Amino acid sequence: MKKYIYIITLISASLFITSCGSEDKKAVVDNTPAIKVTVSNITENSNNPFLSVSGKIQASNSADLSTRMMGFVTKVHVNVGDKVNKGQLLVSINNSDLEAKKAQVNAGIAQAQTAFNNAEKNYKRYKNLFASSSISKKEMEDMTVNFEMAKAGLETAKQMKNEINAQFTYSNITAPFSGVITSKNIDNGDMANPGMPLISLETPKDFEVIAMVPESEISKIKNGTEVNVLVKSINKTIKGKVSEVSSSAKNTGGQFLVKIDLEKTNASILSGMFSTVQFPVEKSASSSMVLIPVEALVKNGQLSGVYTVSQSNTALLRWLRLGRTYGNQVEVLSGLSASESYILSAEGKLYNGAKITIQ
Predict the structure, then answer these.
(1) Strand, coil or helix: what is 110?
(2) For residue 36, which of 270, 279, 338, 341 sits 20 to 30 Å off, Cα-Cα?
(3) Are 329 and 294 in contact (CB under 8 A)?
């Protein structure tokens, strides 16, 4: 009898554990709604329509103005954004020491001029005396030497004045060309030091792009090549033409500098804006590329990837190794093949294992 009771107790306990386990399983069922996604197939391109590289816009004509002298700034005559004309006074630097030197030089010139006038009179008189054989040849030679020394002394004094006048140009900074003030690095009362940028000036509405092209592609870039320049910040594409191709990458880390002149445009572009330069290259049918839109990429630090669809209809993050950018598409070197698809967009936040439903 006890044996039967023991068996019944074991069966009851096992039934209780089973029922508890089934309740636990019901508790972990995922009832979250599936995220609606749009899926796209891999684009395989065998044309290589263009080469895209990053570039930076700058004014074709710009200058950072500085001085060769040290002194206190007495007046800054312009502000950032002001339009100035060629030769217009921009910055005045205290030049009292130059004024003192100029006075000394003027006094030296007056003294040298007096000595020269006196030597010239004596030279002419001696010349007449020598013609009439009233003085010796040695006396005439000595007077000639005195005259030439006085003449050289006067010329030296005049050149010293030219030097002082040249230094005055560094105490009054003027605009080398007509343009717009883009930066002001000094104020009234500040100390100006030699070589320190004081004012930056550039010509408006006249821009160029500086781009760096890898050595594997530089042979395809020629002067006069027409290119498209995409300015991402304003979402505008501007036509340009290659005006300069560097023949050396010695000081640019293996990248060759290419300069592009932009066409005149009413677009609101400014110096310092980043851009994407699209160079046309020769088509090659022997190679193909796997391309995906840049908007489909998922970024995590230095890593880039896309979400793909697993066999159980969940999102699966796949890390990729990317190549060059072609407009709004990027080349996939590894991580995806031409036979696969990826999630282009989603109506919610995706994560690894998220339930999805394809629209």
Answers:
(1) helix
(2) 338
(3) yes
Proportion of the chain above pLDDT 90, given as a percent: 29
Please report how the helices 96-131 and 137-169 are oriented relative to each other, as an axis angle in degrees rounded to 10: 160
CA dihedral in degrees (37, 38, 39, 45; nearest 10)? -140
**What separation in angstroms does the CA of 55 have from each of 156, 206, 242?**
52, 16, 13
With residue 19 as reference, give the H or E element that holds it. Answer: helix 2-27
pLDDT in tens, 337-347: 777 788 888 88
In whole angstroms, give the CA distance from residue 95 to residue 101: 10
Residue 317 sits at φ, ψ, to 5 deg, of: -80, 130
Q: What is the pTM of this model?
A: 0.53
First to last CA, the chain: 66
Sole residue written with tokens 């009362």: 189
What is the rounded distance in angstroms from the CA atom of residue 2 to the CA atom of residue 108? 137
Give the C-alpha distances (Å, rounded to integers) separating 305 from 54, 277, 326: 21, 24, 17
Whole-angstrom distance, CA of residue 297 vs CA of residue 295: 6
* Contact (Cβ atoms closer than 8 angstroms) between residue 35 and residue 347: yes
Burial class of residue 52 in the structure, from the number of CB atoms within 10 Å of its CB (0-12 exposed, 13-18 middle, 19+ buried): buried
Cα dihedral value 210, 216, 217, 221, nearest 10: 80
Structural Rg of the chain based on CA atoms:
41
